Amino acid sequence: PIFLPLTVLSLICLCQSPEASVFQWPPPLPSTERLWNPVAPVILLGWLALHALLYLLPLGKVWYHVLCVLIVSFSGFHGLCVTSVLLMLSLVLGAPFGYLFELLLPLAVCATVLSFLLATYLYIRSFSAPPHALAPGGNTGNPLYDFYIGRELNPRIGNFDLKYFCELRPGLIGWVVINLGMLMKEVELRGSPSLAMILVNSFQLLYVTDALWNEEAVLTTMDIVHDGFGFMLAFGDLAWVPFTYSLQAIFLVMHPQHLSLLRAAAIITLNGIGYYIFRKSNSQKNQFRRDPTHPSVAKLETIATATGKRLLVSGWWGLVRHPNYLGDLAMAFAWSLPCGFSHLLPYFYVTYFTILLIHRESRDERQCRAKYGKAWESYCQRVPYRIFPYIY
């Protein structure tokens, strides 16, 4: 709870500094004036209110997952579309989106404060939740750990699922908006956006659009099914995602890069390959879960488990155990490449994300081994590589 917010603020300061050196000591410390701006809380609260209102619009669809029914009134993809229209209107009217560059630190501070307040509320209310609503790993009796991990699995206010709302809506779409603000700041400084900035914006917009278009798939993820909703997810959704995933765009404002067409084509190809692996493998998995008899997956080889479910051992899931992670990492590397090789800072995301996915894979490995037993051992023998073929 202390180190992560400091990391976010430090990364923003480094990106905005002329040196942008991760080895600079002492690191650049912002003045108090840079950390606070009365406009920041207004923007943040207005942003959350907008997406909460869209979430509650009476255009209902009911989605199910293994633990509860989620009533989703307005999809995240439609929320992105509405946001895009509002952004275009604002740009036409002359809204100074480049000012987001100066507001990054105050916005990150406000998002951090909001995360602490939300996590405190979640921790207190969890003691009135019924036992079946608690997360298995968030009730150790250690107050700090339980505050961080989260005691309650899917806290709600009426039909408003707090974790599900925060998981995709304000942070992911906010990431896209921050990227746009950095592009507009570059236009202010240099007259037009650079090819590097356009690639970063385009790649990450595609990623966010895909996540929101396939929003239902998040219902089977570890965050929703296993993890409680505490500071870790609250801060991750509201602060970490929008302010660290946009580091490449923030970096390019102060450190412009020239890209040749050949290099740009190579980066686009890498991102395209990563996206293809990511989308195809996830679609295959989700289709198999929804309907194992569907023609696209019916002929794939499977292993029966004691739970009655079957494990895919061919197709994408016969290549490595987590082909979606492989595609994810290829895309993450492609997002950093437009920033060149003169600084390590733009590669923070792909470094952090590699560690995150390897750690997540190990958690998934333990859970699957406990759940499927000998069937999982047979799967591991058939598919020995976890993420990277012939490497790991």
Automatic annotation (TrEMBL):
Parts of the chain that traverse the membrane: 36-57, 64-97, 103-124, 192-209, 229-254, 261-278, 332-358
Subcellular location: Endomembrane system; Endoplasmic reticulum membrane; Microsome membrane
Predominant place of localization: membrane
Annotated Gene Ontology cellular component terms: endoplasmic reticulum membrane; nuclear inner membrane
Membrane topology: Multi-pass membrane protein
EC number per UniProt: 1.3.1.70
Pathway: Steroid biosynthesis; cholesterol biosynthesis
Function: Catalyzes the reduction of the C14-unsaturated bond of lanosterol, as part of the metabolic pathway leading to cholesterol biosynthesis.
Similarity remark: Belongs to the ERG4/ERG24 family.
UniProt-recorded name of the protein: Delta(14)-sterol reductase TM7SF2
Naturally occurring in which organism (per UniProt): Cynoglossus semilaevis (Tongue sole)
